[in-house]
Specification:
Structural class: mainly beta
CATH architecture: Beta Barrel
Helix content: 10-25%
Radius of gyration: 23 Å
Number of strands: 10
CATH class: Mainly Beta
Strand order of the largest sheet: 3-4-5-6-7-8-9-10
Shape: elongated
Distance between the termini: 57 Å
Largest sheet: 8 strands, antiparallel, barrel
CATH topology: Porin
Length: about 260
């Protein structure tokens, strides 16, 4: 048995054995550059300056809790909750979209990446649930490929500043668990606490076009930086990172909301 802080026995790795052990062991970008100030712009509709628009960049934040415990439904077991608690922690993400079609809205393909981290203290081996100073850390880096449709026709034609949108795509969640020494955890059989889980996502959202409130500033931002539109948005989605239902996959998805900033350029 390893020794913990001040010679105390570290938590027994009870989660490293048994069928649910694999899951718990598993447990245990795109930025854009400013355009030259002298970049050519053309006069668009309604006397607006419209530089060419091809991309979108999102900075996204939201609460997240990996759905690891769903594997143990009906078994009266919740390893993620026991180690890391029942609350949600911050997920930070970025996404870059290439808008391949701009007709009756915009249709694009997006690449995204995120980062999530949760720390928890291991329990004593006596089954009392008492926490020790020995920590485990779970980290998840979700990668995504999305089809994105934004219905911005209302703003482009009538200056209605609300833009609904939808997303559908594929995901791959890289994950690893490290012990109190910062090393990737292993079980006695030679398994390692790192891997990846495939999945999919679907989301709907609503963005508010900030240009509507400061049109002069928006025109200047476009002329000098090439940013056509700036938005704030909120999105509700389901991220099903469960290996498409395959057994033995660490489930690291969630159903949650995100909010953030969007720049089209």
């Amino acid at each position: 048995m390893r020794r913990g802080v001040a010679g105390r026995p570290c938590a027994r790795r009870w989660w490293l054995a048994g069928p649910g052990a694999a899951a718990l062991l598993a447990l245990a970008t795109g930025a854009f550059t400013p355009r030259d100030a002298g970049a050519q712009v053309v006069v668009g509709k309604r006397d607006r300056y419209d530089s060419p628009q091809h991309f979108a960049f999102e900075l996204r934040f939201g609460p997240y809790r990996p759905d690891i415990d769903s594997e143990f439904d009906g078994q009266n077991r919740a390893p993620y909750r026991d180690f890391f608690g029942a609350g949600r922690r911050l997920m930070t993400q970025i996404e870059v979209d290439y808008q391949i079609l701009r007709r009756f809205g915009s249709l694009g393909v997006g690449l995204g990446a995120g980062y999530f981290s949760a720390n928890g203290n291991n329990p004593l081996a006596d089954g009392s649930g008492t926490k020790t100073a020995d920590e485990s850390t779970l980290k998840i880096v979700p990668l995504s490929l999305s089809a994105v449709y934004r219905f911005d026709l209302g703003y482009e034609m009538y200056r209605i500043p609300l833009v609904p949108y939808g997303k559908l795509g594929l995901d791959y969640g890289l994950w690893w668990i490290s012990n109190g020494n910062g090393e990737v955890a292993h079980d006695p059989s030679g398994g390692t606490g790192r891997g990846g889980t495939l999945g999919w996502h679907a989301a709907v959202g609503l963005s508010l076009v900030l240009d509507f409130f400061e049109p002069d500033t928006a025109r200047q931002f476009d002329a000098e930086m090439g940013v056509n539109h700036s938005h704030v948005f909120v999105e509700l989605g389901h991220w099903d990172l469960s290996g498409f239902g395959r057994a033995g996959q660490l489930r690291v998805g969630d159903t949650t909301w995100v909010a953030g900033l969007l720049f089209e350029f």
